[in-house]
Specification:
The complex is a heterodimer of chains A (about 325) and B (about 375).
Chain A (H helix, E strand, L loop, with lengths): L2 H5 L7 E11 L2 H10 L5 E6 L5 E2 L14 E6 L2 E10 L2 E8 L6 E5 L12 E6 L10 E6 L9 E2 L10 E11 L2 H14 L2 E5 L6 E2 L16 E4 L2 E10 L12 E8 L6 E5 L7 H4 L5 E6 L10 E6 L10
Antiparallel strand pairs in A: 1-11, 2-3, 2-4, 4-10, 5-6, 5-8, 6-7, 8-9, 12-13, 12-14, 15-16, 15-18, 16-17, 18-19
Chain B lengths: L6 E8 L11 H16 L8 E5 L2 H4 L5 H8 L5 E5 L3 H13 L5 E8 L6 H6 L14 H14 L6 H15 L12 H6 L2 E3 L2 E2 L9 E9 L3 H4 L4 E10 L13 H14 L8 E3 L5 H10 L17 E2 L14 H14 L11 E8 L5 E8 L1
The chains are: A mainly beta (about 325), B alpha/beta (about 375).
Chain lengths: ~325, ~375
C-alpha cells in the first residue's frame, strides 16, 4: 500500500503558508438593523408573517416556514438558558429570549459553569462601547428575578448597517512529499531543475509526480533539464491586485524548459519594459537568472531573461 | 437480494489513516490510492467514464483544489466533478449518473489532510459570521451543547459516552487501515479533561489524514469486475437548519429524513440490517445517529452495539475522521465487510447501512444502503 511516498523519505520541513482573506460582509436587512440598533441597546427580532413565529436575533427568512415576510420587532433583554457548554472561548449557551420561538447562541458571563442549569433566567449585559457587533452584548448573566418580557413593535429603527469589514487568516503547513520534495531540494542544494520522465511522450514532467497524467502509468526515472527554455505564452501584467509579489508592470510567462513537456510559470525581466510585448513573445528563448538566496523554492530563480538570437533546439 | 440492481460498489482502495501523512502531499496520496484501486480491480483508466471527488478547499489551503489534483486522480480530459461534501455524497452523485444510464463505471475519490491546518478553523469558517462566529460558537461548542441536549431531552446516558468511545478505539486498533498508538480504557476516557462538557477530549472524533477511492459500476459490468458486488439499494440525504440553535434539540432530524428516504427506496428494515458503518463527530453524535437510523430506541443508543446488526466494526469516525472522506471510508469498510465477511468475523451478511455527516454540529447527513 502506498509504496511511493514512503520509499523516498525526505526531511524537508513543511511549507508554511497563510491565506489572508479580506471580506466586506453584507448583513442584509434583518441582521443589518440588528447590528445598527445595538448602539441604542435594542435587541431586534423578526416575526414571520405566515408562521407568526418570532426569531431573536432578527432573520430575513423564517427558520420554520422559510417565509421572507418578516416584520422587525423589539425583543426583551431577558430569557432562559436552553443548553450550555464550556470551551476555550468561554461558556457558550443556547438562549431562548422571552417571547421568541427559536433559540440563539451567546456567551454566559458573571456565573460559574457548575452553577448553571437549563431553564435558568438570564439577562443581557451590554458592552460599554458599542462596535456594531453581536458582541455589543457581552453576554447574558443569571437574573433569577428578571420579569418575563414581551415582544413589542420596533417603531422607528436605524438604517441597516450596509457592510461589515471582516478578515480571516488561515494557516497551513503543507507537506512536500517525495516528488516535490526532491525537486525543491535539487533547486536549493544543487541549483538543478529536475523532473521525471513522462511515460507517454519523450520529455520531462515538471513538477515531478508519481503517475503520468495522460498514460496514468508510474513515472519514476528522474531527469535533469537545463535552465533554458522557450516562452509559449506571456502577458504583461498592469493590474494591481491583492497577493501580488511585485508592483506592475511585469511579465508572467509560460516557459517550456528544454527537454520538458510541461510549462513553468515565471516572470521575465532584464528588458526595457516599455517594449515588453515586442521583446518577449511566444517563441522567445529565455534563461533562468538564479538569485543569491537558496530557499529551495522556485523563487531561487529570480526571473528568466531573454537570450538574444538563440534558437530553440529541435526535438529528436 | 430484493430491490434494484442498477449500481454496485465493485472495488475500493484506501491509504492508512494517519495522524499526519507528513511524507506525502495530497497528490501523492491520491495517485497511490487510485493506482492501487485500478490494479486490484482489473479496470483500466480508459474504462472509467467519470471521476467525482470530495475534499475541502479550506482544508487543502487552495481554491478549487481539484484543478491541481486532476492528473493524480486520473481525470485528465475526463468528465470530472467536485462535491464539497463528504465523499459519500460523491458516491450518491456517481450512482445517480450510472442509474440514469449516462455511464457504466465511475471513480469516486475522497481525501483529507487536516494535519496541514487547524481543523477548528475549517469548522469556524462554516459558522455564520454576524451572530455566531464573534461569540466563539464553533463545532466544539455545538457538539457540547448537542451532547447536553441529548442527555436532557433525548433521554441519553452520560456513561454511554465513555463506553462508545472506548469501544470505537478498541475496534480501530484491530483495523489495519487506522493508525492507533495507544488505546484509552473506558475509565481513562471518563476521567479525561472536558473540552465541551459533557464531552471530554477523547469523545470528539479525531481528524486524520488519508485517501479512499471506490469504483461504482452498472449492472452490465459489475458482476464481471467484482466476485461479490455490493448493490446500492437506497440513497438519501438531508440538511438541517444552518443555525444550530433552531434545530430540534436532542435528536438529528436530518439524519432521520435521510434514512427514511434510503429505507423507502430499498425497503430495508434497519433492525434486520447485517451491518452498519456510521459517522459521528462526537460520542454523543454517534449514539444520536444510531437512534436516527433506527438501529436503537430513543435515548438507548448504546443498545445498538449489542443488537443483531454489526455496528462500526472498523471503529467508525471517533478514532478516524478524515474530514470529507470519513463517509466514503464507511462505504469502503461496508463493501469490504460484505465482500470478505470472514475477515471481519461475519458469517453471511447481506445488507449494510452506510452513513456520513458533515457541518457544524452534524448539520448534514447522507445514508446509503447496500445489498449483496
Amino acid at each position: 500500500m502506498l509504496q511511493a511516498p514512503d520509499s523516498y523519505p525526505i526531511d524537508r520541513p513543511p511549507l508554511k503558508s497563510t491565506l489572508s482573506m479580506p471580506y466586506t460582509l453584507t448583513p442584509g436587512r434583518a441582521a443589518g438593523v440588528f447590528l445598527a440598533e445595538t448602539k441604542n441597546r435594542r435587541l431586534v427580532g423578526s416575526r414571520c408573517g405566515s408562521s407568526g413565529l418570532v426569531c431573536v436575533p432578527a432573520q430575513d427568512f423564517c427558520p420554520s416556514s422559510g417565509g421572507a415576510d418578516m416584520e422587525l420587532v423589539a425583543a426583551p433583554h431577558t430569557g432562559a438558558i436552553t443548553g450550555f457548554t464550556q470551551t476555550r472561548a468561554g461558556i457558550i449557551a443556547t438562549i431562548r429570549i422571552d417571547g421568541a420561538d427559536f433559540d440563539f447562541v451567546h456567551r454566559i458571563v458573571g456565573a460559574e459553569f457548575a452553577a448553571l442549569k437549563v431553564g435558568m433566567r438570564v439577562e443581557a449585559v451590554w458592552a460599554q462601547t458599542p462596535t456594531q457587533s453581536i458582541m455589543d452584548i457581552e453576554g447574558f448573566r443569571p437574573a433569577p428575578d428578571a420579569p418575563v418580557g414581551t415582544i413589542e413593535p420596533l417603531g422607528e429603527a436605524a438604517e441597516p448597517l450596509p457592510m461589515k469589514p471582516y478578515h480571516m487568516d488561515l494557516h497551513y503547513e503543507h507537506a512536500f512529499g517525495p516528488f516535490y520534495g526532491r525537486m525543491f531540494d535539487e533547486i536549493g542544494t544543487n541549483r538543478r531543475l529536475m523532473g521525471v520522465r513522462s511515460t507517454h511522450i519523450d520529455g520531462a514532467l515538471l513538477p515531478p509526480r508519481e503517475v503520468d497524467d495522460i498514460s496514468y502509468t508510474k513515472t519514476g526515472t528522474w531527469v535533469t533539464v537545463p535552465d533554458t527554455g522557450t516562452v509559449r505564452a506571456m502577458s504583461v501584467i498592469h493590474l494591481e491586485f491583492k497577493g501580488q509579489k511585485e508592483p506592475p508592470p511585469y511579465i508572467y510567462a509560460e516557459i517550456q524548459l528544454d527537454g520538458a513537456v510541461t510549462r513553468l510559470i515565471h516572470s521575465i525581466k532584464g528588458i526595457d519594459m516599455s517594449r515588453a510585448s515586442e521583446l518577449v513573445k511566444p517563441g522567445t528563448r529565455v534563461r533562468a537568472v538564479w538569485s543569491d538566496a537558496r530557499t529551495g523554492s522556485l523563487s531561487d530563480i529570480s526571473h528568466f531573461q531573454p537570450i538574444p538570437d538563440d534558437v530553440e533546439p529541435t526535438s529528436t | 437480494m430484493s430491490g434494484f440492481k442498477n449500481v454496485a460498489v465493485v472495488a475500493c482502495a484506501q491509504t492508512e489513516l494517519r495522524t499526519a501523512w507528513s511524507s506525502a502531499q495530497h497528490v501523492d496520496l491520491i495517485s497511490s490510492t487510485v493506482s492501487n484501486l485500478l490494479k486490484g480491480s482489473g479496470v483500466r483508466l480508459p474504462d472509467v467514464d467519470f471521476v467525482i471527488d470530495s475534499g475541502s478547499d479550506v482544508l487543502d489551503g487552495r481554491s478549487i483544489s481539484n484543478c491541481g489534483f486532476l492528473g493524480a486522480m486520473g481525470a485528465h480530459h475526463k468528465e470530472e466533478s467536485r462535491v464539497e461534501e463528504d465523499g459519500l455524497w460523491a458516491a450518491v452523485y456517481g450512482a445517480t449518473k450510472i442509474a440514469a444510464g449516462a455511464a457504466e463505471i465511475g471513480l469516486i475519490i475522497a481525501y483529507s489532510k487536516p494535519s496541514e491546518s487547524d481543523p477548528s478553523l475549517f469548522y469556524s469558517s462554516q459558522v455564520e459570521p454576524f451572530y455566531q462566529r464573534p461569540v466563539g460558537f464553533d463545532h466544539l461548542a455545538a457538539s457540547g451543547i448537542q451532547a447536553q441536549q441529548y442527555l436532557l431531552q433525548g433521554g441519553g446516558r452520560e456513561a454511554d459516552f465513555a463506553k462508545v468511545t472506548a469501544r470505537a478505539w478498541k475496534r480501530a486498533s484491530a483495523n489495519p487501515l487506522v493508525q492507533v498508538e495507544a488505546i484509552l480504557s473506558e475509565d481513562e476516557i471518563a476521567a479525561s479533561a472536558h473540552v465541551a462538557p459533557p464531552l471530554r477530549g477523547a469523545m470528539m472524533s479525531r481528524p486524520l489524514d488519508g485517501c479512499v477511492a471506490i469504483l461504482l459500476a452498472s449492472r452490465n459490468v459489475a458482476d464481471r469486475i467484482s466476485p461479490r458486488p455490493a448493490w446500492i439499494t437506497g440513497m438519501g440525504s438531508a440538511m438541517d437548519n444552518h443555525a444550530f440553535a433552531v434545530r430540534k434539540p436532542g435528536r438529528l432530524e436530518a439524519c432521520e429524513a435521510a434514512a427514511k428516504a434510503a429505507y423507502r427506496r430499498s425497503g430495508i428494515d434497519p433492525a434486520k440490517a447485517s451491518l452498519a458503518e456510521v459517522s459521528g463527530s462526537s460520542a454523543a453524535g454517534e449514539l444520536m445517529v444510531l437512534e436516527a437510523l433506527g438501529l436503537s430506541r430513543r435515548g438507548q443508543g448504546f443498545e445498538a452495539y449489542e443488537g443483531a446488526t454489526a455496528i462500526n466494526l472498523s471503529g467508525g469516525a471517533l478514532p478516524a475522521d478524515p474530514i470529507m472522506a470519513t463517509g466514503l471510508v464507511r462505504l469502503a469498510e461496508a463493501y469490504r465487510q460484505l465482500s470478505q465477511p470472514a475477515d471481519h468475523g461475519l458469517s453471511s451478511p447481506d445488507t449494510a447501512i452506510v452513513h456520513a455527516t458533515g457541518g457544524v454540529g452534524m448539520q448534514t447527513h447522507c445514508v446509503v444502503t447496500l445489498g449483496v
